[in-house]
Amino acid sequence: DCGTILRQKEAWAQKYIGDAVMAIWVHPQGQPALREMALIFDSLLRLYEVADGMQARFGLDSPIRIGAGINTGLASVGNMGSEAAADYTALSDAVNLTFRLESATKELGCDLAMGPASYNFLESTVDATGYFRVSRMQLKGYREPCTVYSSTRATVTDLLEELRRHLPATVGGPDAGR
Q1: Residues near 178 by Cβ (< 8 Å), separated by ≥ 6?
Q2: What are the residues whose beta carbons fall under 8 Å from the beta carbon of 162, sequence distance 6 or more?
Q3: Are 71 and 31 spatial neighbours (Cβ–Cβ below 8 Å)?
Q4: How many CB atoms are closer than 10 A to CB 100?
Q5: Is residue 97 a contact partner of residue 52, using CB atoms and an 8 Å limit?
Q6: Cβ(72)–Cβ(31) under 8 Å?
Q7: In whole angstroms, what is the distance from residue 23 CA to residue 18 CA?
């Protein structure tokens, strides 16, 4: 199940919102580490596998499509609301942008849309240019067009392999607990 996959890949929290799953990774250094980014991409690939299995398991005529948004930024995380209606969640512009990126996957015809902060982190570690298509698009709730880095499932697989090549051999790596 999705929650099990996300916990195995060290997601700090997850929240189910209709047919969406929001996963949160907390980065102790204030920005992601390479290992954390590899875990995030590995989680996404495992979720694709779950969706593939659902088509076969339930005899669906067409495949279940997953569109993912990945973004990096600060957020307030905790129980929000009142005592009678508390909801454990994350709130911030970074979270809002992530949801808009996920929605943009439909318009872009891609499997993954990433925000500039996450992309810039990747670029600081590996040459990510060949893995993403860059677009400027108007996202709901934003006055100015946003830069969006989009990718396909196959490309995410290749990117994860590239990230793993850059991980130190002493690190358990993203496959730990798989």
Answers
A1: 8, 42
A2: 126, 131
A3: no
A4: 21
A5: no
A6: yes
A7: 14
Rounded Cα–Cα distance for residues 97 and 79 (Å): 21
Lowest mean pLDDT among 25-39, 54-68, 74-88, 155-169: 74-88
Q: State which amino acid sits at residue 93.
A: D
| Winning range, highest mean pLDDT, from 25-29, 31-35, 129-133 | 129-133
Instruction: Give the N- to C-terminal CA distance of the chain in Å, as an integer.
Output: 13
pLDDT at res. 153: 94
Give the separation between CA 132 and CA 149, rounded to whole angstroms. 6
Distance CA 140, CA 95 (A): 13
Which pLDDT score is estimated for 76? 67
Find the length of the chain: 178
pLDDT of amino acid 177: 44
Higher pLDDT, 170 or 114: 114
